Amino acid sequence: MTGCIPIGKAIDTLIATRCIVSGYRPLYSNRDFDPFVVHLGLEAAT
């Protein structure tokens, strides 16, 4: 399957969705949130 973006665990998807909708900036250390940052506009805390 080309063009698929792995999104990690389901809980990561729920957390990222909540952060995007509410404007939260999560602080994270794993790469599961990177696709949300790149493709969906999630802003990571620095």
From TrEMBL:
It comes from the Bacteria. This is Twitching motility protein PilT.
